[in-house]
Structures
1.
Amino acid sequence: MTTALEKPPDLRGPDVTAVFAELFDAHSRQLRGYLAGRVGESAADDLVAETFLVALRRRHTYDPAKAPVKGWLYGIATNLVREHVRREVRGHRAGLRAVGRPEPDHGAFVADRVDAERASKAVAAALDDLRDEDRDALLLTSWAGLTPAEVAAALGEPASTVRSRLHRVRARLQALLTEKDR
């Protein structure tokens, strides 16, 4: 059997269990690191499992001509991160309402979460100010180690869009962080 890293896997073949076991072995560790950086250690394992479960359910939609399997998996994971954060924010707000406390705004909640995980208030505030698409592209390249082409596949965008977005986001973050140091 060809390894998951050598050529596109056959997700429609008769031995899909072995193919997914190989994909899990090849990608789960890096994927977990990316997810832990986005949502914390406690949720990362669940989201890795959910990523592969969604991939298994949607295996018939995978088109190796459009994206390498790594990009496809990170695209699924990124969408799950967004859903997870939305659920967490809703739950947090509901808890605050139940005890009669005012609700913090979403941006402050996300900034506090990133700050706690990465121990950097300046970086957390700068990341929080980014649009979702910009943040996803940046974190997929920096935390997950994906190439711009893989990020493009994960997000369903042209590679040229991702490269220009990354250039713009990095310049903006550099300016924000330099400005806050003064």
Note: The chain has a mean pLDDT of 80.
2.
Amino acid sequence: MKSDLSWVMNDVLEVRGARHAVLVSADGLLMQRSKDIGRDDAERNAAAMSSIQSLCRSAAQFVGAGKGVWKQTLIEYDGGWIFLSAGGNGSYLAVSAALDVDMEAMSMRMQKTVSAMRNGLSAAPRQNNGGA
């Protein structure tokens, strides 16, 4: 059964300047997209976001021994920003935004949303009932 994760997209897109959002699995599969981005574009960007988070995680040791757990990446382009955050359980939330986005509001909204995702999408470990 596929979970309805549209609430994730709706929440982050409330920030003024937010354009699109995608929820991505660690292996680059599109889990959810905002309604105003086409499926092909969303899937292409999902794969790119997965690659970016992988690159950022591999460079985490650059911040110092024992302190390199990747949490968020911010990328600036001529036309706007990409915010990419670890979502927990092997998922990542990416939002594109206009140049004039309130960066603090977006970062805080994404942190709040990611925290809610961790709580709402986590599943208890399966119990072994002795069966094979």
Note: The first strand starts at residue 18 and ends at 25.
